[in-house]
Amino acid sequence: MKPIRKFTVRAVVPGSLSALEELAGNLRWSWHEPTRRLFEHIDPVLWRTCERDPVAFLGEVDPARLGELAADGGYLEWAERERAGLREYLSEPRWFQSLGARVPATIAYFSPEFGITEALPQYSGGLGILAGDHLKAASDLGVPLIGVGLFYKSGYFSQSISPDGWQQERYPVLDPDGLPLSVLRDPDGSPVQITLALPDGASLHARVWKASIGRITLLMLDTDIPTNTDELRTVTDRLYGGGGEHRLLQELLLGIGGARAVRSFTSLSGTPAPDVFHMNEGHAGFLGLERIATYIGEGLTFAEALQLVRAGTVFTTHTPVPAGIDRFDRGLVERYLTSSLLPGVEPADALALGVEPGADPATSAFNMAVMGLRLAQHANGVSKLHGQVSRRMFGDLWPGFDADDVPITSITNGVHAPTWTDPALLGVAESTLGTGDTEHADWRSDALSDAEFWNVKRRMRLQLVEDARGRLAAAWSEQHSGSAAPKWISKVLDPDTLTVGFARRVPTYKRLTLMLQDPERLRSILTNPERPVQFVIAGKSHPADDEGKRLIQQLVQFAQQPELRDRIVFLPDYDIGMAQVLYPGCDVWLNNPLRPLEACGTSGMKAAMNGALNLSILDGWWAEFAGDDYGWVIPSADAAGDAGERDALEAAALYELLEHHVATRYYERDGDGVPVEWVRRVRQTLATLAPELGADRMVRQYVEELYRPAAEHAAVMIADDARSARDLAAWAARVRGSWPNVQVTHVESGGVDSPHVGDQLQLRAYVELDGLSADDVTVEVVYGRSRADDTIDAVRRASLAPAPVTDAASAAASSGPRLYTGTVTLDRAGAFGYTVRAVPRHPLLLSTAELGLVAVAT
Ligand SMILES: *Cc1c(COP(=O)(O)O)cnc(C)c1O
């Protein structure tokens, strides 16, 4: 029988156990092991069946058992202690509170996905997990941040694999009442409703769910409410589900609706309004337009409001893969960006923000990342290499500037150690190293013997092996209409075999099947009688990506071969819960993307935090952290003739490393069976690499390098009735007006006949300013090593000074080029090159490239 309606009835927990409800209501349990132990104690078996989700668990627990505990003084005391601990965590001063004055009041952090726990499946992959970890670390550090996202009724999707290896998607409906969420309400108790005006007089409405992630509130907008038409109720049905118009509606809701929800929440809760807005990827870019509309309503022009919004906005790009960037049909966007939706905003001004550089504005696709960068004065990529790649990729937005000038910095991602460190490692850190802080424990200490450490690692490997067998058996039954799984499934994998993990989404650039380049070679590595290797693999392909599904199918079919199936397994339905068992169980984490398309990658970080070594292409985070003790670098064949040759070369290097370096090292044992050198490397990784990989390091960097400057800049701009924003907008308009005529007309150099190191090059440059004053412009010499391809390397810059104007008459006429002079010391031997350029100058610009205006000597 199929129910016509479903809902969740919450458990009645005895009053004396109210601490349990309070603890279940704050998602800190998702990373706080002591709280989990408190729940587990109630019924360890049921706890596992409920996938360690306290809300579901309390709904299922036998009331008699709760009655029993309500009479157990020891348990009541334990629960009260944990409750007091939570309350203290929520209120005590933490790192951010020690920073003193001039810090952001509130940061609004927007992301289309948040991965907090598998019980709240609102994520598809790395971006979501990162956003979840960002909130958790912000909570730990006391950073006043509000998360803003959407509530997707079916999340992303659940994956199963058909007997012939094809991915199948299911969309189980989530019941928000069965989750630790509450509705944002007005003081009279009615739910807050966010409304967006749509074309033809229609409206889109949303309610707002609140989740508590430690000290952080996450707001999630949900259109599945009766005030919407049936069609509009489905706007938040799935994450990355639809294309075109459906996706546009989601992003209008996230950006515009999200900004409105933040306003309701802060005023209802008495939280200071945000002074910093953080957009993750282009998806939430419309929030900038909503804020511009608000300032226009307060009397500013579009250009003035834009300056104000930019000052307090941070844009983070998370991918160099074009398919990862949203682009909409211009006509479609035009239909939605009306003055009913955004009062006071001229649609043409809004549309111009999304025009791709160099494209015809009348036909250009509307590019969300480009809009994001135009709306944010502060921008970053997510690893050093990705910062470089982004400066090139988006360089056309700042035409005439070198990639090095492009104002996109980088902050390398990190992962939240308490979420991602296995309880077994936490336990051994507590019992032998005297700390529960696994990220900063002294893992090299003699207090912990290699044998004991290796034993813990074996336990984690065994846990993975058992978990994998259970998952495969369940998947089998599901695919074979309930029949029991065959016996061989209960024997797959082995807790004493070198275990390699590979799990991630399956876009082509991640090359799930690189390992299958030479199937015979892989087969012999897996089945090596002395040094066997086993692989545990998982990953979801986007439902519309048949190419990705074909890759999964190839892999699954390879792994189905009877002589290999206990050495290589594909586990369906990769999620946070699986990830938390997978990383600790692996000895080696494999990552082989096409360099440089992995912006950062975080799974290898999580593996390292659980005592795995990395075997990876030098991409993303690994490009800046790789070290001999931390794992192995798979050389990239960047110079290969074509993609096929590149794959073949990189796969060959992978096999060679696995067979002759990784496996040999792993099976090198002492008399007690401990791989001493391997363990030394793993302990070194935990001691010196793991502390660099934490989300706490990342969030501190965001606060110091981006949030704080953004808040300060926004404060300057808004002070005194937004005087600076008005001034800057007026000045920028004047400079733009003159710029077509600004020219470096002539450059003379002297002082060196046959140049030697130490000589001084004297420069005289004549610059036509077209009525701009010398204060409006910086004239500078840009110099360095000149290269054969006519570029300058190792670039340095020095300002030239305007020569004093002695003749009052010519100054007044201000016509004709102005003379600038300066010197450059030739302090290096070798090929030298220089040029002279003029760029706009204003104290409120953060970068010389900001306006995208430059005049270079020709
Ligand atoms: C960490 C993680 C990811 C991201 O992994 P990448 O290495 O960045 O691709 C995806 N899914 C889950 C469940 C994760 O835990």
From TrEMBL:
Keywords: Allosteric enzyme, Carbohydrate metabolism, Glycosyltransferase, Pyridoxal phosphate, Transferase. Its EC number is 2.4.1.1. The keyword Transferase applies. It catalyses: [(1->4)-alpha-D-glucosyl](n) + phosphate = [(1->4)-alpha-D-glucosyl](n-1) + alpha-D-glucose 1-phosphate. Signal peptide: none annotated. It holds the Pfam family DUF3417. InterPro entries: Agluc_phsphrylas, Glyco_trans_35, Glycogen/Maltodextrin_Phosph, Glycogen_phosphorylase_DUF3417, Pyridoxal_P_attach_site. Phosphorylase is an important allosteric enzyme in carbohydrate metabolism. Enzymes from different sources differ in their regulatory mechanisms and in their natural substrates. However, all known phosphorylases share catalytic and structural properties. This is glycogen phosphorylase.
